[in-house]
């Protein structure tokens, strides 16, 4: 037997991705402090806005995407982060400068991390560390981002919907949109035909998406047809899109908090648009504010509460593909099998599934059992954002969208599920004592 490489031979089969990132981040030191939390680790937005899309790029490097990185790829991930270290330090320095310029200009709209992180990474790549003209560049950049937002700001939106005369008219339009009878039904499909058509496309979407099949789903209005099944009591509730037994018209609204946004179908018109204003990117593609509000009012009364048939079809595809994420759910298609396998590969999920079914509503099994609802909520939010920015859904990008939504849900739920598991373990140990 060949002795082989002792380092490779002794390497663990997998290493937690979060641990690898934490190791290298600690090496980068004080230079990346503006991108770090109080424990010296990268902020959640640093991972979401910088490390994942711009450094690790899991879409191009799928071996970096999972929560556990295989041992043979661990050194590659470390090397990728170390190579980006100087640019990340320059990004942090530019972020400090842009925040200072923001204060000077007395700008309070939006979250600075959402607005500036990626632009700072761009400045770091083109200009390096801030130089003698950093103050001018920072001021111009902040002003440019503000100007790109135009009138599409939360303050302008609130002013628009709270004007007494305009608010009365908007409420009338909202009531009229929901009172309008639905579009005439298309010829009925044979039993099982809708599911079969969705599965037929989903079987090839991960490898060779068929543009003709997707076009057929759109022309056949299968997204709108699938939305009809949300009408019975409890149907949309089961999908996690509302907390109500029946879908109800939204309020016009005048306030919102990103931390406490309700499920999609329970959001006010203000909350729906507020969520789309939290990023500066692509806001220039949106229509003027009065038109945007009127469009949103009409959207709330449409199938899936989405305006375009391609996005409705994508919701129907996501609903079908996510079946395997539900407890005892059957994937039904190749895409569904891939999503279910990714979810069940998560160590915390495996640990939770090995536990006896918890009787308490907040136990580990309950957390795992709600992932499909979280998936559908996140998918709706992404598709709604695409409609606001007039970004089309195309067959070649559809798998990246469906798979990327699950990756995002996993990142969000990983720490929470671990905390629930730790509490459950501590409770068991306390009972044994």
What does this molecule look like?
This protein is mainly alpha-helical and 433 residues long. It has 2 domains: 11-149, no CATH class; 192-249 and 301-432, no CATH class. It is 61% helix and 1% strand. The protein is built from 20 helices and 2 strands. It has helices at residues 6-10, 17-28, 44-56, 71-104, 112-127, 134-149, 154-162, 164-179, 193-202, 211-219, 222-227, 235-238, 269-276, 289-300, 309-321, 334-345, 347-354, 364-369, 371-388, 395-432; strands at 14-16, 68-70. The chain has a two-stranded antiparallel ribbon. Helix 3 (44-56) packs parallel to helix 5 and helix 9 (193-202) packs across helix 15. The longest helix has 38 residues, at 395-432. It starts with 5 loop residues before the first helix and ends with a helix. This is DUF1631 family protein.
